[in-house]
Design a protein that fits this description.
196 residues, alpha+beta, Lipocalin, eleven-stranded antiparallel β-sheet, 21% helix, 39% strand, Secreted protein, signal
Length: 196
């Protein structure tokens, strides 16, 4: 009898482990994620509107974001800077909020030494605005690479009816690109390391 009970507990535990975790989220995160998901498949051109350490290559290059791949948990948004297709923003529902990662690749598809840095929401944010303070992985990466100034990075994304904005802030640093959502452009080719 004890053996049968032990087996039933074991099977119940195994089935609980095998089930995927429920997708837990809150309304503001869902609304933000949903607004970006609605843009899936489309690309938009942007302009640097704030760069207190410019000028840089971002000022002279064509800037295009492409909401390229979307599912209920993850959005992949390549950010093309001219011919440089090394950057992809990855927004993920984690069950405790939203995560933003920067996937940086070389032209051959291999990982850049500075890749998958980003942050995680710490609060509800707003339907249109979410903030991603640097996470522990990113802080350790920046420290290892001698980029201590980046440890306090906060990335922000804004999505409104006519504009999407990507913003980086920290003490003494602000950078923002606004993308015109009213004028879709031809989507670029796949970013480095990805396939169409």
């Amino acid at each position: 009898m004890k053996a049968i009970f032990a087996l039933s507990v074991l099977f119940a535990s195994a089935s609980a482990i095998a089930r995927p975790a429920p997708l837990v989220s809150i309304p503001t995160h869902d609304a933000f994620f949903g607004s970006l998901s609605a843009l899936c498949g489309k690309a938009f051109q942007g302009t640097v509107v704030v760069d207190n350490q410019g000028p840089s290559k971002f000022d002279s290059a064509k800037l295009v974001m492409h909401v390229r791949r979307c599912n209920e948990r993850e959005l992949q948004i390549p950010f093309h800077v001219g011919d440089d297709a090394s950057r992809t923003w990855i927004i993920t529902k984690t069950g405790s909020g939203l995560s933003l990662k920067h996937d940086h690749r070389h032209q051959d598809g291999s990982d850049d030494v500075s890749t998958m840095y980003g942050g995680h929401t710490l609060d509800a944010g707003f339907n249109q605005v979410q903030s991603f303070p640097a996470d522990q992985y990113s802080k350790e990466l920046f420290a290892r690479l001698g980029m201590a100034q980046s440890i306090t990075n906060i990335w922000q994304m804004y999505v409104y009816d006519k504009t999407f904005s990507y913003r980086l802030i920290r003490e003494g640093r602000e950078f923002r690109v606004d993308f015109d959502l009213t004028q879709p452009v031809t989507p670029p080719t796949a970013p480095w390391g990805y396939q169409d």
